[in-house]
Design a protein that fits this description.
Layout (H helix, E strand, L loop, with lengths): L6 H30 L5 E3 H8 L3 H9 L6 E3 L2 E5 H15 L1
Antiparallel strand pairs: 1-3, 2-3
Amino acid sequence: MRHGLLGERGEIMKDIFKRASKETLAEQKRIQELQAIPIREAYSRDEAARKLCISLRKLDYLIAEKRIKAGKCGSRVLIPATEIESYLNSILEGVA
């Protein structure tokens, strides 16, 4: 049975375009979130996890394994920007 002028193929194409646009919007939102994180000397756990594109739990594991150094200011955990850069560089060295 035909649906409109394009038939079933047209409906499939519409579905593909809808999914692609949703993925594009999700990616744009992610970019905006990353751009919203200001550049500074140290980051909160949440900010560091977002900069590294990992979960808070993964970040906590990395800190516990001493692969990323973190300090405390009162009850707040801070991760130096240099630690984030060092961790990223260590990952990229393994890829190259």
